[in-house]
Each structure stands twice: as structure tokens, then as C-alpha cells.
Amino acid sequence: MAGKEKFKVEEVVKAIKDTTGLLALTAQKLGCDYSTIYNYSQRHPQVKAAIVEAKERNLDFAEGKLYELIRKGEPAAIFFYLKTQGKSRGYIERSEQTVDVTTKGEAVKPYVINIEQDKLQPALAILGDAGAIRLGVSNNTQN
Question: At CA 53, angle to CA 118 and CA 38, rounded to 5?
């Protein structure tokens, strides 16, 4: 270590807990840069553990609020939960994409592919860069 550290590890850990793991606020509370907190987390396992614990607590809190909304019958909360946690039971949003490909003036037989929405844009980017390919995409979303 190049020199004496500005803060004791315990001070940084306390500030992390006081600011619920929001590191920009932690840095503000201590009067330092965000990078200082980051560097402490890299050098001191106790600081890194405090950050992980705070984030886990925040996640637990948010999940608790989500479950409260689900119990109240809030449709958006129910939909979100099923879409993110119910995939193994078939609750997944898929898009059916019809792709019409023409290369060098010759039509290629159109085919239908099923691809999840978050995978569509990268797939189209790859196909679009392939040269003289013209794409026709129809977006028929199915739940």
C-alpha cells in the first residue's frame, strides 16, 4: 500500500450500510470520490461483503414489495412475475418472425423462425451485415 488510507474499513462499511449500498451516496457521505469506495472494495473483503449484503437486502426488499402487489392482485406485478419467473411453466413472451431473404436477385424460399424478442435485434444485425441480403420482417407477437 502506497500510504495511509483516508478511512478506516469500519467507517466505509458503516457508510455503505447507512446508504443502503448506494455507492455514490456512500462516497458523498464520506466526502470522497466513487472510485475511492470502489478501490476500498477491491482491497478489503469486508467492504466488498458489505456492498454485496446491502444489494441483497435491497433485492429482498423489492421482492417483498412485488409479492405484496401480487397478493393484492395487481395485474402488472403478476404479469412481471410470471414473465420473469414462470418460464419453466411456459410463461414466456415469444415473437414469431417471418424472414424473407433475397440474395443476388434470386428469391430464397421464406421460412419462419421463432426467436425471443431480446435475441431478435442481434440476429437481425448479423443477417443485415451479410452483404446483399434484403430482410422483410413481420412482427407477430404471441404470448
Answer: 80
Backbone angles phi, psi at 91, to 5 degrees: -85, 80
Q: Is 8 helix (H, G, I), strand (E, B) or coil?
A: coil
Instruction: Give 3-state DSSP helix, strand, coil % of the chain, rounded to 5.
Output: 55, 20, 25
Q: What is the pLDDT of residue 29?
A: 97
Lowest-pLDDT choice from 19-28, 29-38, 114-123: 114-123
How much is the pTM?
A: 0.59
Q: What burial class does residue 65 get, using C-beta atoms within 10 Å of its C-beta: 0-12 exposed, 13-18 middle, 19+ buried?
A: exposed
Q: Tell me, what's the pLDDT at 133?
A: 43
Provide the Cα torsion 50, 51, 54, 58; round to 10°.
Answer: -170
Average model confidence (pLDDT) across the chain: 80
Amino acid identity of residue 43, one-letter, is R
Burial class (CB in 10 A: 0-12, 13-18, 19+), 74: middle
